[in-house]
Amino acid sequence: MTSHAPDDRVIVSPRYMAGAGDRLADVFGPLIHLFGWSAQHDAATGYTTIDSPDGSMFIDFDPLQPLGRWWTIAHHEPYWDVRFSRQAPLEAVAAVTQALPQLLGDTRHAERIPITDMPLNQLAELNDWSVEDGVLTSPDGYCHLLPTPDEDIAWRAEHTFFEKQPLATFTRDAPEGLVRNFFAHLTEPAVERDFADILFSTRYEHSGLITPAGGAAINPHVDHALAQLVSPGRRR
């Protein structure tokens, strides 16, 4: 049995096992308040759509989507889209949405919202992921970023615990900078969550490491990092 209450704040690793979290404002807020994107929201369903000022790009959020594909980003001329599932960490989703204005030529706040230029294989190495035949695999072997350049979907992030529903898909013409930003934030080793927001498999099947975000004698992030070192079988 867990000793954590549902509203306890905890630190979870790996991030790709932590669930979406509650930072929804980070996905939409900068686009609306810093870049002037327009938003429409249905309070009854939660459905939200945001459009770029020039009308060339939109983001749909549909928390009632039956297959759990909550997020769709679509661009016109050329057409490409990016989709995220309900399990995708919002930190990684926000790393994509916040980079969109730069792709449309709006460079305001670019110093605060960088698009990483580090190659994917270097990002993988930085976070202990392996690379074989172009496939990037997490240390625990559960999470993968797969290139399929000859298909309509050119990149697919998958996790074996999530019933083969991809965490993210990027179609062929989607800018690779968005793939890099997503991957960079997906692979970071730890993230804070309310305990109730963590995926069931992570909470109760010991597939991740969970430590308190408060109450430790030392900095809780340091405490979590030390727990990673001494817990057998725990990898980032």
Percentage of residues in helical conformation: 10-25%
- Spans of at least 5 consecutive residues with low confidence: 221-227, 232-236
Proportion in β-strands:
15-25%
Radius of gyration: 18 Å
Task: Profile the largest sheet.
Answer: 10 strands, antiparallel
The spatial strand order of the largest sheet comes to 2-3-4-5-6-11-10-9-8-7
Which class of secondary structure composition applies to the elements?
alpha+beta
Helix/strand order: EHEEEEEHHHEEEEEHEHEH
- Give a count of the beta strands, DSSP E runs of length 2 or more: 13
Average pLDDT level:
87
Distance N to C terminus: 23 Å
Global geometry: globular
Number of helices: 7
Describe the structure.
By secondary structure, the protein is of the alpha+beta class. 24% of the residues lie in helices and 25% in strands. The strands form two sheets. The chain has a ten-stranded antiparallel β-sheet, covered by helices on one side.
Defining key terms:
236 residues, alpha+beta, ten-stranded antiparallel sheet, three-stranded antiparallel sheet, 13 strands
Describe how the helices and strands are arranged.
Elements lengths: L8 E5 L10 H10 L4 E4 L6 E4 L5 E5 L9 E5 L4 E5 L5 H8 L2 H4 L16 H7 L3 E3 L2 E3 L5 E5 L5 E7 L8 E4 L4 H11 L4 E4 L5 H5 L4 E4 L7 H11 L6
Helix pairs in contact: 1-2, 2-5
A few lines on this structure:
This protein is an alpha+beta fold and 236 residues long. 24% of the residues lie in helices and 25% in strands. Strands 2-3-4-5-6-11-10-9-8-7 form a 10-stranded antiparallel beta sheet, with helices on one face. A 3-stranded antiparallel beta sheet has the order 12-1-13, with helices on one face.
